[in-house]
Write a structure and sequence with these properties.
heterodimer; A: about 375 residues; alpha+beta; Butyryl-CoA Dehydrogenase, subunit A, domain 2; Butyryl-CoA Dehydrogenase, subunit A, domain 3; four-stranded mixed sheet; 10 strands; B: about 250 residues; alpha/beta; two-stranded antiparallel sheet; 6 helices
Chain lengths: ~375, ~250
């Protein structure tokens, strides 16, 4: 065996030319199929359902998922590249809605049987069905061990009663990967069921009106003696808690990516605008105060992105990154809070007007430090792992 | 039907280019690149013919190691295999045509389909030179291609209209802008394209001397546009056109 003693280090590159090709395809998709309409969809608080099919047809939904269920196996940076490019639509709501399967199907893949994966994963990656994840209830979100929706076994069915809220894609979802209580109180009484929207007793609220993420349909979902076949149980009864928790790692990584892109877009807009907008006879960029603000924005974006990539690389290599991904999410959200705020500041009055991208970015940004586990929850997790 | 297509690596037309300080080229360090849009149209057309008639599509790229990216792009769109002629810098049109002659001799395709020109230097010569060297028919600036056994009916965009040409195959066709709208590669196809074969050769392997007959000595930015001015009336306009613009 040869042993080459190197005296210089190499740095890790996360994206290969092959990743770049995927990125380019995603970018073209966004440019052609999304950007011309996104303003309209945002105002309508909905994007056309056919977009799921369109995105599936060029493989955007299935990237990183197993081939036997219609996916395209790929390392984590392909998914990152696709997420980043979708965010170039400038609409976090569109990304969250189109990508709701990314939180809804991993529990099916990790806990489900082959039969369940064929039924509940393949049609979703194919763009035929919409999948959503149902964990949060009106009474609690991150406190998963305390969920109240009950599923009582009755013959070969579970009878489900309760309510889920803030469900992304909730209005249009065909299936809900849903956390229910099947056993005693606490974490060890929780199971995961896939509940189909056409099950009698399943009903959906009106679209919830939100501060941001307008293009995504968010709903409350009610179960009233909703009879769910036992074959829709994922894994073993009362063993759902771990699956939910494992799923959070990926969701938090993706929220960090969204926050980084939100900040990056805001920064790019501010850079462009500060060169063209004049005040007191010179462009805004001619003032030191603006330049320094832009420098701070760019620094935050770069630092946060690099750390997120690093965490992603370790997750991709199979390392446990619960603590780090929580840090990445918090840092990215702190960066995007600051950067979107400053971008609006640079735009002045226009930054407060609808139709300006920075206005939407600032609105869409607010959810990122709440959804998928709030900043404070992240800190609790980190503090326990330090 | 076996079709040879080209994929030249060019600077992204959406980016602003800057002339290098020595004036002999453009600054490429911060540029992004893509496949020549006219070649992309040619590849798309070849794929449509293949989908209709069956056969094989081979993508040829000439250039540095990085030019492989554009060949892979063609493979991602659906082409079957690639040929990469490695060359330090872009050979001129005549050298490209002579390289393609050698590849045609080795592969004996039924058709060579290529972009009418590359959007970087806009030479618009390779298709014509290639047809001449091969002694094949040529149909350049195609806006519609239909294949019927051993002939191709090509609608060509010419000044003032469309010229329809029937050409015996094998032949050379160059693609114009309106021939089709190229697909963008689906992600699964990109992943599969990583495994498709790209054969590497040098111009020397083919016995082609790529010494340039054309040398770029000087590139310059176009003169900056001066701001417009609104004139009061027609008389003032005519006067300005006569005395300042010197156009009438």
């Amino acid at each position: 065996m040869s042993f080459e003693f190197k005296t210089t280090c190499e740095y890790q590159k996360y994206f290969t030319p092959s990743h770049d090709l995927v990125r380019k395809s995603a970018r073209q998709f966004v440019k052609k199929e999304i950007l011309p309409y996104i303003e309209e969809w945002e105002e309508a608080c909905e994007f056309p359902k056919e977009m799921y099919k369109k995105a599936a047809d060029i493989g955007l939904l299935g990237i990183g998922y197993p081939e036997e269920y219609g996916g395209t196996p790929a390392d984590i940076f392909y998914r990152l590249a696709v997420s980043e490019e979708l965010m170039r639509s400038g609409s976090g709501g569109f990304c969250a809605g189109l990508g709701s399967h990314n939180i809804a199907i991993p529990p099916i893949l990790s806990m489900g049987t082959d039969e369940q994966k064929k039924r509940f994963v393949a049609p979703v990656l194919d763009g035929e069905k919409i999948a959503a994840l149902g964990i949060t209830e009106p009474g609690g979100g991150s406190d998963v061990a305390n969920i109240q929706t009950m599923a009582v076994r009755d013959g070969d069915h579970y009878v489900v009663n309760g309510c889920k809220t803030f469900i992304t894609s909730g209005c249009r979802a065909d299936q809900l990967t849903c956390a229910v209580r099947t056993g005693a109180e606490g974490a060890h009484g929780i199971s995961m069921l896939v509940i189909e929207a056409d099950t009698p007793g399943y009903s959906v609220s009106e679209k919830l009106k939100k501060t941001g993420w307008w293009a995504s349909d968010t709903a409350e979902i009610y179960f009233d003696d909703c009879r769910v076949p036992v074959e829709n149980l994922l894994g073993e009864e009362n063993q759902g808690f771990y699956g939910i928790m494992a799923n959070f790692q990926y969701e938090r990584l993706m929220l960090a990516v969204m926050a980084n892109m939100t900040a990056r877009l805001a920064m790019e807009e501010a850079m462009r605008y500060s060169k063209e907008r004049k005040a007191f006879g010179k462009p805004l960029a001619g003032f030191q105060v603006t330049r320094h603000k832009l420098v701070d924005m760019a620094t935050l974006v770069e630092v946060s992105t690099e750390f997120t990539y690093r965490v992603a690389a370790k997750i991709g290599a199979g390392e446990d990154q619960i603590k780090e991904v929580s840090m990445a999410k918090n840092f990215a959200c702190m960066a995007s809070d600051r950067v979107t705020y400053d971008a609006v500041q640079i735009f002045g009055g226009y930054g407060y007007m609808r139709g300006y991208l920075v206005e939407r970015l600032a609105r869409d940004n607010r959810i990122l430090s709440i959804g998928g586990g709030a900043t404070e929850i992240m800190k609790e997790i980190i503090s326990k792992l330090m | 039907m076996k079709i040879l297509v080209t994929a030249k690596r060019v600077t992204d037309p959406d980016m602003k280019i800057k002339v290098r300080s020595d004036g002999a080229g453009i600054e490429t360090s911060s540029m992004s690149f893509k496949v020549n849009p006219f070649d992309e149209i040619a590849i798309e057309e070849a794929l449509r013919i293949k989908e209709d008639k069956g056969g094989e599509v081979i993508v040829v790229g000439i250039g540095s190691d990085k030019a492989q990216t554009e060949i892979r792009y063609g493979l991602s769109m659906g082409a079957d295999r690639g040929i990469h002629i490695t060359a330090g810098s872009d050979p001129d049109s005549d050298a490209v045509a002579r390289i393609l002659v050698k590849i045609v001799e080795a592969e004996s395709p039924d058709m060579v389909l290529l972009g009418k020109q590359a959007i970087d230097v806009d030479d618009n010569q390779v298709a014509q030179l290639l047809a001449e060297y091969l002694g094949w028919g040529q149909a350049c600036f195609a806006s519609k291609v239909s294949i019927n056994d051993n002939t191709a009916r090509v609608e060509r965009e010419v000044d003032g209209g469309i010229e329809v040409v029937d050409m015996d195959l094998p032949g050379v066709i160059s693609a114009d802008l309106r021939l089709n709208e190229p697909r963008y590669p689906a992600l699964p196809a990109i992943m599969k394209a990583r495994k498709k074969e790209i054969k590497k050769m040098t111009p020397a392997d083919l016995g082609v001397d790529t010494t340039s007959k054309v040398v770029i000595t000087q590139l310059a930015e176009p003169p900056q546009r001066k701001g417009g001015r609104i004139v009061e009336d027609v008389a003032e306009l005519v006067k300005a056109l006569k005395e300042e613009a010197l156009v009438i």
